[in-house]
Design a protein that fits this description.
The protein is built from 10 helices and 9 strands. By secondary structure, it is α/β, with parallel strands linked by helices. 44% of the residues are buried.
């Protein structure tokens, strides 16, 4: 049974295939409107979500399928102590495919090992968020037309940011990539990501605390919020939460074709004035996420038939 737990579960050619399908969905939505007729997606969200959950639901509905599930753990049997493994086995009796978000790293992997239907990791703790990465990749493809020879700046919470870890993993397979890591010392990219991904793939990277210094060299700026829910200490969160705020002044030294991305939700790390800048791509990312989730659901359901 094929599931998607980590972005590296997909080969480069499979990502290209998903992008091609997503682009075809954009051009010919009617062609796909009944592709999942009679199929059910179970959304098992043990952690709050707006964009990811609703985009999975919108994706399934636009494919002609149906959705069942829950949006918080205390409305499921997890509140009674049911294991992730048992939940996955149970839901396999009701649905054709599962999208799971969980605060614990590795929970969707455990679910995939127990389920008899495909499981999609919709975010697990500070670990991975592969479908957000698919949204990011479609956005880069549509904005830049390529994945190689790009300088990408990641700014904000690089320590706990699962979207950052996933996208760095995905981009590590392309040539000519330069990475600029912009964060306070306390929220630096974890050493294991530097060692296992950047160093292992000979990807040059620089670390800086200054967004202004990094800005002129960037083709893509990937902003992230400082995540209150990942902190054990409220004082640390309050001290770091406004470390970087992107505004129109900071964009003056940026390239004219810079793409500003953000996995959302934003708190105040991007000024609303930036929304009107043609370089702002974060709401395009949201829409691209729906198309890529549609393409992924189709792929996994098709493979489940084999």
């Amino acid at each position: 049974m094929r599931s998607l737990i980590d972005i590296l579960d997909l080969s480069v050619s499979e990502i290209e295939e998903l992008i091609a399908t997503a682009c075809d969905i954009i051009e010919n939505p009617q062609k796909y409107s009944e592709k999942c007729k009679g199929k059910k997606l179970a959304t098992l969200f043990f952690e709050p979500s707006t964009r990811t959950r609703l985009s999975f639901e919108a994706a399934m509905y636009e494919l002609g399928g149906n959705v069942i599930g829950f949006s918080e753990s205390n409305s499921s049997s997890a509140a009674k102590g049911e294991s992730v493994s048992d939940t996955a086995k149970t839901i396999s009796c009701y649905a054709d495919i599962i999208a799971m978000r969980h605060p614990k790293e590795g929970a969707p992997f455990v679910a995939a090992n127990s389920a008899t239907i495909p499981v999609i990791n919709a975010g697990d703790g500070g670990h991975n968020h592969p479908t957000q990465t698919l949204a990011d990749l479609l956005t880069i493809h549509r904005e830049k037309g390529r994945f190689d020879n790009l300088t990408i700046g990641f700014c904000g919470d690089l320590k706990f940011g699962r979207t950052v870890h996933s996208l760095i993993n995905a981009m590590s397979r392309y040539s000519g990539i330069n990475v600029v890591l912009i964060s306070p010392d306390e929220l630096k990219l974890p050493g294991y990501v530097k060692k296992d991904v950047l160093d292992k793939n000979n990807i040059p990277y620089t670390e800086t605390r200054s967004l202004e210094e990094a800005m002129p060299s960037l083709d893509i700026l990937y902003m992230t919020r400082v995540q209150r829910e990942r902190f054990f200490n409220e004082e640390d969160y309050l001290r770091l939460k406004d470390s970087y705020i992107l505004d129109t002044e900071k964009l003056k030294n940026a390239k004219s074709d810079l793409s500003v991305m953000h996995p959302l939700p934003r708190v105040n790390e991007i000024s609303v004035a930036v929304d009107n800048d043609p370089r702002a791509c974060y709401f395009k990312q949201v829409l691209n996420g729906k198309y890529m989730r549609m393409a992924l659901i189709l792929k996994l359901l098709e493979e489940a038939k084999k």
